[in-house]
Design brief:
The chain has about 575 residues and is an all-alpha fold. Helices cover about 55% and strands about 0% of the residues. It is built from 29 helices and 4 strands. Helix 6 crosses helix 7, helix 25 runs parallel beside helix 28 (about 490-525) and helix 26 runs antiparallel to helix 28. The radius of gyration is 34 Å and the shape is globular.
């Protein structure tokens, strides 16, 4: 590393150590996007954030493909703002305490979880002694009350007594009764923001801090803040008739709409959300096997073996110094940025999980990507030397590029087959995909929709290379899982697919060449009964006479051999 870069890193690291209060500021980019000054009071920040959050032009609602799909009954829980309506069969009008009394019988697990939560025990937070590892919650509660006063939800000196069913499902700190069939709401992220404005703003800032230099991805994507928009704007998701299957994607792509995908109801336990298992539900599987890669890494093994001895109640910034944490988790790596921790998880993103996205690899050595690499090196330097960190990050980049090269070579082969119209059934049995999708070679829709020879097996294979095998290689090397980028997954899977594609290419081209020869022979074939000149007739006569002579001689020889036997 050159001296200038080293100096930059040292200055950055020292500055971070001095300023690492743990909690990140809301990024300047977000204030700029909202046209607000950083001194704006909580009510102005809340109103600006929620206005953008609810704006269809900014990603809210059913998306530009809405005419192609209809919600199913369960969709109301994935996108409550668009589809949730209070139950019409329950008409009870109840006050605050009646919610708890009734649901203790109707849904006892809800109530039991809530009773253990901070929401139900605000006075306990107020009484925390300074030496308690959760003492930080006292300051957070004061901040919540400050936000509520700014929004007119609390009086000047009024404390927040509790956060019960009615506060989240009707209105915060309401004293009114609520009708089940008219007033109930399914809480969305902006409802949580009424109290937790800082966290909401941090999450929403992902829209502003991931702006790709060459538009490799749309602004703000990929991120939790816009994951539902990414879902409904995917053409095959909108087009496929199997809505129940399609909503399987939404089951993870709902963080934009709600907070309870990470902070599960109704306890909203910080101990749960701090642990890597909280991320595993969505960050797993064939195209983003982050959980598998992490859990099989040395980091994951240390967490699995020793994590039970760590204090998960301390703030994330104190996890190593006060909580006894001796290995990184998803949260301690991805929520950290320059020594502080926030709900913005994309400020260091460079590869964005999918190396095959056009332009990603070309951008990986840009100033934009290098600054983010520096931020990653700082994160790794919490546990490793800076030299170790940078050498591994270099390994990660080069291994990913090597996998990308193998995929690109295979893709060119399939592209050429498609261009030459040599794919099986391409000219005879290739149904068009459902709109708004359009046909093409090795398209994403082919992983979720198939009919006839669309896709051909070779297209399916190369699509899996780009969408599944290559991401697994990258994720494996990024999370320090050796088998994940070599033999078990990644490179070996890419090699298997590559070999299958090359073999199929050879077979298809040999078959095409053979068919071409047959066609040429068919065109030259002459019928014995359709002779158009005397020369052909003479030739046929000569051929027939010769065959007759040969037959006569053979018959005479056979008769001579038979006579001795007859005597």
């Amino acid at each position: 590393m050159d001296i200038a870069r080293w100096f930059r890193f040292v200055v950055l690291a020292c500055g971070v150590l001095v300023a690492a209060t743990g909690r990140a500021d809301i990024p300047k980019e977000t204030y700029d996007a909202l046209k607000l000054d950083k001194s704006a009071p909580p009510n102005q920040l809340y109103e600006a954030l929620v206005k953008r959050y609810k704006d269809p032009a900014e990603g809210a609602g059913r998306g530009s493909h809405a005419k192609y799909w209809e919600p199913i009954a369960f969709s109301k829980y994935f996108d409550p703002a668009s589809f949730y309506k209070p139950p019409s069969t329950v008409k009870d009008v109840v006050a605050r305490q009646e919610c708890v009394t009734c649901h203790a019988d109707e849904s006892p697990v809800w109530v039991a979880s809530w009773k253990k939560s901070s929401h139900a025990n605000l006075d306990r937070i107020r009484r925390l002694p300074a030496g308690d590892p959760t003492f930080y919650k006292k300051a957070m509660l004061e901040e919540v009350e400050k936000n509520l006063r700014a929004l007119g939800k609390l009086g000047a000196n009024e404390p927040l007594k509790e956060v019960g069913c009615i506060d989240c499902h009707v209105d915060i700190n309401t004293s009114k009764k609520a009708a089940h069939n008219a007033d109930l709401r399914m809480p969305t992220a902006d409802v949580c923001a009424t109290c937790h404005l800082q966290e909401f703003a941090e999450r929403e800032s992902e829209r502003d801090t991931i702006t790709w230099p060459n538009n490799q991805w749309p602004k703000g994507r990929p991120s939790h803040a816009l994951d539902y928009k990414a879902n409904v704007e995917t053409t095959i998701w909108a087009g496929m008739p199997q809505r129940e299957i399609a909503e399987g994607c939404t089951a993870c792509h709902q963080n934009q709409n709600k907070c309870d995908t990470c902070h599960t109801r109704h306890e909203f336990s910080v101990v749960e959300s701090r642990q890597p298992q909280a991320c595993a539900t969505c960050h797993n599987g064939i195209d983003h096997n982050n959980w598998e890669a992490y859990s099989l890494s040395k980091h994951g093994k240390v967490t699995e073996i020793l994590g039970k001895t760590w204090n998960w109640n301390v703030q994330l910034k104190d996890a190593h110094t006060k909580g006894g944490q001796t290995a990184p988790t998803c949260q301690s790596c991805h929520m950290e940025y320059q020594g502080k921790y926030s709900h913005n998880m994309v400020r260091k993103v460079r590869w964005a999980n999918y190396p095959s996205v056009p332009g990603i690899a070309d951008n990986i050595k840009s100033d934009w990507a290098e600054k983010r690499l520096d931020a990653w090196a700082r994160t790794c330097a919490n546990c490793h030397s800076e030299r170790f960190a940078r050498s591994y990050l270099e390994l990660m980049d080069k291994a990913t590029l090597q996998g990308l090269a193998k995929y690109q070579e295979a893709h060119k082969v399939v592209d050429k087959l498609y261009a030459d119209k040599l794919l099986p059934g391409q000219t005879t049995n290739r149904p068009a995909p459902p709109p708004p999708d359009k046909d093409g070679v090795a398209q994403f829709f082919q992983l979720f929709w198939q009919k006839g020879n669309n896709p051909s097996s070779i297209e399916y294979t190369v699509t899996e290379m780009g969408e599944n095998d290559l991401p697994k290689l990258h994720v494996g090397v990024a999370h320090v899982n050796p088998g994940g980028w070599t033999y078990t997954e990644g490179w070996e899977a890419l090699g298997r697919a590559y070999s299958a594609i090359m073999s199929e290419d050879t077979k298809l081209r040999e078959m095409a060449a053979l068919q071409e020869r047959v066609v040429k022979l068919e065109a030259r074939r002459t019928s014995l009964f359709d002779l158009d000149d005397d020369g052909k007739k003479l030739s046929l006569g000569g051929l027939g006479g010769g065959m007759l002579l040969v037959g006569s001689l053979a018959l005479a020889g056979w008769r001579r051999r038979k006579k001795p036997d007859e005597g």
